[in-house]
Design brief:
Elements (H helix, E strand, L loop, with lengths): L4 H11 L8 E3 L3 H11 L3 E3 L2 H6 L5 E4 L6 H10 L3 E5 L6 H14 L3 E4 L14
Parallel strand pairs: 1-2, 3-4, 4-5
Helix pairs in contact: 4-5
Length: 128
Amino acid sequence: MGTGNIARQLAEGVASGKRCGITAVGSRSADAAAAFARQYGVPAAHSSYDALLADRTIDAVYISLPNNLHHAWTLKALAAGKHVLCEKPRAGSLPDAEAMVAAAEASDRATAVGYTYRRSPFKRRRVS
């Protein structure tokens, strides 16, 4: 969901993998979705996020939209029966994040935040 820089980085990483693929892309415009699909070999391009969520062949979505849209589109995706990987930050407030987790639990769908903990500077060991 989304065709910006972060979505392109993900698509490049997925293209180098052997066990996954991108089935569809959704964008605010048909042209952007089609261009992304051509560039990354994605079989289906949807001209809206709602159309992507309505696609019954999609089990999970990656939300790489601007931060202020993460909450609303995660809730919509969960309501549509999709598992959700949401780019960081999950939400702009604790109540929004809690609502997203509660919606995932209520829909029996998984939700996670796209954050590479292994590479985080917070995980570096201090050397004395």
